[in-house]
Amino acid sequence: MNKFKFYFILFSTLLVLFSSCNKDDDELAVTPLRDFGAQFKTDSIAIDKYLQTHYLNLESVTDIASVVNSADLIKKMPTTGTLPPSIFTLFNSPTLPRLLIKKIKKHDIIYSVYYLQFSEGDSAEKPCPLDEVLVTYRGTSLKSGTETQSTGQVEVINATEFENNPTNSKFTLSSTIAGWQEIFPLFGKGTFDETATGNGPNVYSNFGSGIMFLPSGLAYYNGSRTNIPSYSPLVFSFQLLNLKRIDNDGDGIFTIDEIVKNTDYSFTYSDSDGDGIVDFLDFDDDNDGFPTRNEIKKPTPFQGTSLYYPFNPIVDNPLTTDIDESEPKGIPDKSGDFSTPTRVRRHLDKTAKPPYTTY
Ligand SMILES: [Ca+2]
Ligand SMILES: [Ca+2]
Ligand SMILES: [Ca+2]
Ligand SMILES: [Ca+2]
User: Fold this and answer.
1) Which ligand is nearest to the CA of 296?
2) Nearest ligand to the C-alpha of residue 275?
3) Domain of 277?
4) pLDDT band at 202 (very low <50, low <70, confident <90, very high)
5) Are residues 41 and 185 in the same domain?
6) Distance 343 CA to ligand 4 centre (A)
7) 296 pLDDT tier (thresholds 50, 70, 90)
8) Which ligand is nearest to the CA of 281?
9) Which end of the chain is less congested by CB atoms within 10 angstroms, N or C?
């Protein structure tokens, strides 16, 4: 381990110790947290009931994705007459809209989270939990209550709007609630219309859109916000318009290429050189003393516009006729192979060190 890294780790450890002390002091004054498993059961009962007693109002709707944030989209079942199919009946539907479940391990329990899929978006361009997203959304909180119906007092689940942002907002997913970090990576971004002006939903097409039904453990839990009481399950409708890849350690490799996406859409934070610093925060990923940025630099003469290799080769985007984005070579391995997906790229190979002479 080099000296800089040693001090970096020491400093980080002290910082964590210091902030943990503060946290303990604060927590002495507050009510103990509810048990996550028990609260998840309570929230699940409310969410299940909400899905069974509400339906999608698709009357005169031709494109759900465009009206996803409308307050009229989800309606309470009528108490008389023919009942429309509840949201719950869309579970695993072969066609869209479709209700799906994602299993999420957190707080030593396994959460099952329902989400509605209206459109998947660009399946090749989905955010990771550390990327920046451009979204529209509307949020409601669920609460049990009673209502007088012809059969007498009936228990119902009410949804109360706490926020509606129909234009767009930018978020770094890592600074949002856990539910957003888990569900947005299941959707893809839209296509930006290069000829349009502005940045709202109208200049994007084919974006990912849906509704997530989050238990409080994946939202604010015991915390409260304006119009969101503690321990509230939350429902968010959303449009995922665009995303921006983030490079957290500034080493020239996007974070999404420094973490592992598992088949169940969970992510693993790898530490290739085993020095205790995960790859996406490690600027010398193989700990050979040469910063990753130097190891991914192209020797001259080279092709493409960047001084650095992209992670994988890039083909030109036909939509941007004025720019040639093509990069013929991704980061090569020691032998010069630049395209095999499973190759050990040279910034992760301790035995490959600069200077590199051939492009
Ligand atoms: Ca990086
Ligand atoms: Ca490392
Ligand atoms: Ca790195
Ligand atoms: Ca290195």
Assistant:
1) 4
2) 2
3) 247-359
4) confident
5) yes
6) 16
7) very high
8) 3
9) N
pLDDT given at position 199: 67
From 244, 278, 293, the end of a domain falls on 244
70 CA to centre of own chain = 22
CATH number at residue 118: 3.10.50.40
Query: Contact at 8 Å (CB) between 215 and 41?
Result: no
How many whole angstroms from 258 Cα to the centroid of ligand 3? 6
Q: What is the pLDDT of residue 10?
A: 45
Q: Does residue 225 sit in the same domain as residue 209?
A: yes
Same domain, 84 and 172: yes
Within-domain flag for 221 = yes
Query: Are residues 224 and 259 both part of a single domain?
Result: no
Global confidence as pTM:
0.88
345 and 260 fall within a common domain = yes
pLDDT digits (tens, 9 = 90+) for 29-57: 668 899 999 999 999 999 999 999 999 99
Ligand 1 center from residue 284 Cα (angstroms): 10
Residue 10 lies inside a defined structural domain of this protein = no
Q: Which residues lie below 8 Å from residue 199, measured CB to CB, with a gap of 6+?
A: 134, 168, 241
Return the DSSP state at 175. Answer: G
Cα–Cα distances in angstroms (integers) from residue 221 to residues 156, 216, 218, in the given order: 22, 5, 7
Q: How do residues 261-288 score in pLDDT, each as one tens digit?
A: 998 889 999 999 999 999 999 999 999 9
In a domain, 78, yes or no: yes
Integer Cα distance of 232 and 34 in angstroms: 13
Residue with tokens 């990327």: 131
Distance CA 241, CA 202 (A): 10
- Residues 109-133, mean pLDDT to the nearest whole number: 97
CA 281 to CA 253: how far, in whole Å?
11
**Are residues 221 and 278 both part of a single domain?**
no
